[in-house]
Specification:
two-stranded antiparallel ribbon, binds fe (ii) ion, alpha/beta, Rossmann fold, single chain, 15 helices, six-stranded parallel beta sheet, Dehydroquinate synthase-like, alpha domain
Length: 399
């Protein structure tokens, strides 16, 4: 993503490490805030993952209430519901503890707390929408505490919210368009590997692969700045190394590496765009809300790579090298193909569904998926131009 004349600065305080969630109360107190709304979901709450956050708030004398009604693939109605709770209390800060659904819901509630238009006014479908500056006021203070190693949402300026009437996942977002300008996103993020310890294997695989796809799409995106590439390369090496172990054994060192990787990819999202993988996967998720984001991502990734590498083999040769493939005797085209094979092997190793058919997608919906993908912001950053016919070919290849 390029931002024209805009200088992009994304101010956020981040702390990474085991036990960091226990600093929530101290961090809030240091800001002079006294009353917090914890936004989470029932799964996170039932697993006891917010217990440490609660005791930290109690230890520092912070009053709080809990909103735990967020569900997967959050909708506009869920954002309104969370906003109602936020408006009802005198909360100085929102503390989002959860995966991407929780964090995105909390982000949008903090946006609507201080900006009066309906959420759809802040939807972005084109690069011009991103730089239009629709978010006029600073969002309500937000602390993000991720419990999955995948979305990077704790640190990026995007949120994805489904508009059920359109069966469409809206991308909501705005970078700070001038230093300290209003934008969507957290003020503080406490990134704590301990909180990902109980994530079940299937979600570990899906969210971890999502993190890989963020680094991959950021790396090859049209106009991706060089500054992101050391980080995207690192994440593309780290996920294949640690995801199988995190999936199979849940070992903490592997989980810590994955969380650091997903967080790093989240930072990169603020400087580079996504592409057709996210475009097609978000559209599919809007039409099939029961499909987890990371699983749709896995199904589309190899097919989109095959489409893109025909014009940009060198970029995908770089992906192969980052993933640890020995490409020394390969041409760029051979190395790019090896990158697709390495990605397919990773998907297979962590037992993710690799075909759209396995996810329950109706073959008759593929033309609509291709057509709707042209309305997403992500398609503008795909390295290779794609029209509806091209995207239909890709979707058929993924089926
Ligand atoms: Fe994603």
């Amino acid at each position: 993503m390029t931002f024209g004349e805009h200088t992009l600065s994304f101010p956020i305080w981040v702390e990474f490490g085991n036990g960091k969630h226990e600093r929530t109360g101290e961090v809030i107190d240091a800001k002079g805030w006294e009353n917090a709304l914890i936004v989470t979901d029932q799964g996170v709450r039932d697993a006891g993952i917010i217990d440490g956050v609660e005791s930290s708030l109690e230890a520092d004398g912070i009053e709080y209430e809990i909103y735990d009604d967020v569900r997967p693939n959050p909708t506009t109605a869920m954002v309104r519901d969370a906003l109602e709770t936020l408006n009802a209390g005198g909360f100085d800060v929102v503390v989002a503890v959860g995966g991407g659904s929780v964090i995105d819901t909390a982000k949008c509630a903090t946006l609507l707390k201080t900006n009066s238009a309906p959420l759809s006014e802040y939807e972005v479908n084109t690069p011009d929408d991103v730089t239009a500056g629709s978010i006029e006021n600073h969002t309500h203070p937000l602390i993000t505490i991720p419990t999955t190693a995948g979305t990077g949402s704790e640190v990026d300026y995007w949120a994805v919210i489904t508009a059920p009437d359109r069966e469409f996942k809206m991308a909501i977002g705005q970078p700070p368009l001038y230093p300290d300008g209003p934008h969507l996103g957290a003020d503080i993020s406490l990134v704590d590997p301990e909180l990902t310890a109980s994530l079940p294997p299937r979600q570990t695989a899906a969210t971890g692969f999502d993190a890989f796809s963020h680094a991959l799409e950021n790396h090859v995106a049209a106009g991706a700045p060089e500054l992101v590439k050391p980080y995207t390369r690192h994440v593309m090496g780290l996920v294949p190394e640690y995801l199988p172990e995190a999936y199979e054994t849940g070992e903490m060192e592997a989980r810590e590496q994955l969380l650091f990787g997903s967080h790093m990819a989240g930072f990169c999202e603020n400087y580079a765009g996504f592409g057709a993988i996210h475009s097609l996967a978000e559209v599919t998720g809007g039409m099939y809300p029961e499909i987890p984001h990371g699983e749709a991502i896995a199904a589309f990734t190899p097919s989109v790579m095959r489409y893109n590498l025909e014009e940009y083999p060198a970029r995908y040769a770089d992906v192969a090298e980052a993933m640890g493939v020995d490409v020394s005797s390969f041409s760029d085209t051979e190395a790019a193909s090896a990158a697709v094979e390495a990605v397919e092997a990773l998907i297979d190793e962590v037992d993710l569904p690799s075909r759209l058919a396995e996810l329950g997608v109706d073959e008759g919906d593929l033309p609509a998926i291709a057509e709707k993908s042209l309305d997403t912001i992500e398609i503008h950053d795909n390295p290779r131009d794609a029209d509806a016919a091209d995207l239909l070919d890709v979707a058929r290849d993924a089926y």
